[in-house]
Amino acid sequence: xxxxxxxxxxxxxxxxxxxxxxxxxxxxxxxxxxxxxxxxxxxxxxxxxxxxxxxxxxxxxxxxxxxxxxxxxxxxxxxxxxxxxxxxxxxxxxxxxxxxxxxxxxxxxxxxxxxxxxxxxxxxxxxxxxxxxxxxxxxxxxxxxxxxxxxxxxxxxxxxxxxxxxxxxxxxxxxxxxxxxxxxxxxxxxxxxxxxxxxxxxxxxxxxxxxxxxxxxxxxxxxxxxxxxxxxxxxxxxxxxxxxxxxxxxxxxxxxxxxxxxxxxxxxxxxxxxxxxxxxxxxxxxxxxxxxxxxxxxxxxxxxxxxxxxxxxxxxxxxxxxxxxxxxxxxxxxxxxxxxxxxxxxxxxxxxxxxxxxxxxxxxxxxxxxxxxxxxxxxxxxxxxxxxxxxxxxxxxxxxxxxxxxxxxxxxxxxxxxxxxxxxxxxxxxxxxxxxxxxxxxxxxxxxxxxxxxxxxxxxxxxxxxxxxxxxxxxxxxxxxxxxxxxxxxxxxxxxxxxxxxxxxxxxxxxxxxxxxxxxxxxxxxxxxxxxxxxxxxxxxxxxxxxxxxxxxxxxxxxxxxxxxxxxxxxxxxxxxxxxxxxxxxxxxxxxxxxxxxxxxxxxxxxxxxxxxxxxxxxxxxxxxxxxxxxxxxxxxxxxxxxxxxxxxxxxxxxxxxxxxxxxxxxxxxxxxxxxxxxxxxxxxxxxxxxxxxxxxxxxxxxxxxxxxxxxxxxxxxxxxxxxxxxxxxxxxxxxxxxxxxxxxxxxxxxxxxxxxxxxxxxxxxxxxxxxxxxxxxxxxxxxxxxxxxxxxxxxxxxxxxxxxxxxxxxxxxxxxxxxxxxxxxxxxxxxxxxxxxxxxxxxxxxxxxxxxxxxxxxxxxxxxxxxxxxxxxxxxxxxxxxxxxxxxxxxxxxxxxxxxxxxxxxxxxxxxxxxxxxxxxxxxxxxxxxxxxxxxxxxxxxxxxxxxxxxxxxxxxxxxxxxxxxxxxxxxxxxxxxxxxxxxxx
Length: 987
What we know:
Largest sheet: 7 strands, parallel
Strand content: 15-25%
Shape: globular
Oligomer: single chain
Strand order of the largest sheet: 11-12-10-13-18-9-19
Structural class: alpha/beta
Mean pLDDT: 88
Helix content: 25-40%
């Protein structure tokens, strides 16, 4: 089957799109009896119901969930479970108004003989499950998830109604025994979103496994809040805001705050624990203001939900937590925080103490004795940090999705500590919250906007990415996500004003060349015909199901040639009339949320460059691999990139066999010289002659930010792990939104990157020297996406909503990237460098060292080591040590990657893959961090370069990369390039 046709290329897919889009007219029929035209959410729910799915009605109060339930119940024998008898009676009357007679089982109900639709309450069903004995049906609708999940008898009754009691118990047994359950269920369970997060009981886990979605998961959506700050006149601000507010203050100040406000004529009550009387009076407008504490367990933070009444909240000081140095975890948090404010050796020692709690606690206690450290929240017995979680919960009292839209709220923080506010503000920027000074807004006007609710009518979008981690992160930008199983693959759903987002991961490529067919899946016949087969059929089916639900498909795969090929595959298999392509170079809210509304367009050139590379890999690699396997054994391979790289390692392995002496000469003053010399040199040395000592002031500029090759090189040395592992860590950091795209050859810094450095440095009173480093283009350097150092990230991990557990390796790598980038935007360092030239046994040797840093500049964050020696011209006795080493040592993985970059035979996406492939094929093996060829590797390489030098040379690989660029830019056609290659291939 054809996929896409171009002048010189035809993409053909062996499997057709799986489309299950239900016509709009079928959906409108469902709601016609109620005299309404369904809106976006109701249309999506209807499609799912008509397909026979179980799901959650994800939407705010008043969004038409109840009407949808009634409309769906007309199609199947249904059980409807609601929270109260009053509501059950109202639903029954609504059905009767359209000529449908239900059976009611509740205190106000009419017990008719009808078994088509049964209406009851969770309480009635729990008290008397026998009410529905003898009834069976096809669908259960639950409009009271909280009450339903709290009552096991209600759950069992619902399972009995669907004929799934035995299945339900079997699933629970499998979960208990940690066994997989792979069965199917025939009935449907449709629930409305929960108002509270249900405990993950065995019953709830069983329901999720059976029906494929999170039953009882509380759904949050983004708020419509103006965040302000002020440094004085809290009373004046409250007087301007008027009635309808909450004031949060420390517990010891509640009484005084209440009295202060009462003197100004307000009706005020303290609210330290739940009180129905006070709650009702405030709801009715009899009380103007409530005063309470701000903490994650406060009744005024979690126990009140009156968005129509609460217009504003005021925090009398920054919400904060006091962490005593009592546990290993708290000591580690404090050390990470202290690290940000220290310099030099003290900073280095702080980092070394992480993971050593006893020494760390002693270090912190001594540190807190210094008066200036109180500015950063360090005291003799505790560390004070901002409580951003409590703030988010508390200010959320002012804004909620309601039937009329999202309410508008105002939140004001009184700044009682500038340094704490800086940390507080920085952490909340991660959550997309920006604070404005009260002086910059018209408070009265903002409060008057209270009735201007954000419209909640939305379009439904399917956002397609590669990985589950990226899918979960992006979904979280639009509200807390609900996981849903679609054909065995998890999708993530979230709702926010204007949008219903389904985020779906393809888990990388889900098609590939049909290499088992003629021409390894690619033939030349007038044009290049590339034949692709599914390698993940479950992804294709899930795409068809999800695309059938939504108004548009947005493809947000990586901004490189591999991501582009996946994007075109999604476009074909989703078969949606509205499919857009967007590219994100960083996964942050400020980039993604507006970005999914755009359309960057599909890139034909980038697609073709990926296709030509894949075909060349197949034609060269697979043909040569078949030959190699016949001669040297199964499981082996050859390729145009891995073969020259293998040659470098082979040559260096041979060179490394020549040994020399690595000599260390140490003077009495501690100065050392280290150099290589022929064997036998060390025993001839007994003194060294210093012939000159020169001191010079130098300006040392910072290094540019990382590219893929430089970060792999540095990180493999610092972490002592494989480059493949580092690429996985980089992928995690990118998908979690902590760094920009990590497959890049560019050192360019965008204006957004410069702003990140500026904000970080200005918060610390440091100067920025803006540098763009590289030329323009789509990609930029690898850099942090926010001005958040590793300590800030660790302290606010919940704010980030990071779906993977960040390890010590993640934080080490992030720290390397963060500080390399920050230093790249700082002033040069000014040093005094000493050069000592010496003569020993007729040889000239030299030693350079920094003896003073006169201006720290970028080195305030480390990188310059100072040494002091009293040295002058003359002859000195020396202590001589030596060991035999290779004249040319074996290559490390990082050195190989640097060579690939320098020689131009690799791309950022292939650096680590190439090295790892050589290890897996047993052509090389690691010795520590270095690589040595095996006898098998040397034999295979010799055979290939002797028989097929034109296909596996460095020049061949450079040619392919150049051709890919030419195809991408439209300068050459795929047909021309592959026609020339075909002439060179072995028969």
